Automatic annotation (TrEMBL):
Alphabetically ordered keywords of this record: Disulfide bond, Periplasm, Redox-active center, Signal
Pfam families tied to this protein: DsbC_N, Thioredoxin_2
Protein name per the record: Thiol:disulfide interchange protein
Organism of provenance: Thioalkalivibrio denitrificans
Record Gene3D superfamilies: Disulphide bond isomerase, DsbC/G, N-terminal, Glutaredoxin
Domain of life from the UniProt record: Bacteria
Amino acid sequence: MKMTRLVFMPVLLLALLSLAVAASEKHVRERMQMLIPGAVPDAVVETPVDGVYEVRYGTQILYMSADGKYVFQGNLVDTETRTNLTESSRTLARQQVVADLDESRMVIYGANGETRHVVTVFTDADCTFCRRMHAEMPEINDLGITIRYLLFPRTGVDSPSYRKAVSIWCADDQHHAMDEAKLGREIPAKSCDNPVQEHMALGEQLGVQGTPALVLENGQMLPGYRPVNELAAILEQLSKR
């Protein structure tokens, strides 16, 4: 009888703790929905900090106390491991978002031969460093790297860069139009149903602040141009983890 009781007590405590955690998560979720009406958190999880929960909306991360009294935003860093826990959560969120993207709504330059890596790139046809990266596309593809372009004209809707992005998408030959635009040449103006504004909204959601912005398969974001050899080295290192 005594042995049964000793075994039962830890199980009971664990069950009660699980119920308490579930109750706190539910309270935090409800409290956040009161503070931000119409927005439903994608995830509410405990953090390593007692009494603090992470609340995730896409790649946007907020923190709330278990009692729902305090909410704050910023980077949560583990000082012992020097790990940015907030960025780790953002990376996971980006990975999920990128994995779910519809490739029929992208301009894709496929790897030559076996695909070793896939990189999703927010690009602007008028961006100098985007053009520099695009000039290396044959080398990139020869290394087994597929590039999935999302159109992100930095100057916004109805700007010349935006209209150029739409024309690229609507061209009979998207690759030819992209190649010509990235060389600074004029391309025929075209109009059709297009995903350019979807791409722009997605970029803002993922925290894109400039182009090119590269999102790797694990969700890591690399801002700015990376020479082909540097990019290949990063991808190879990533594949070994």
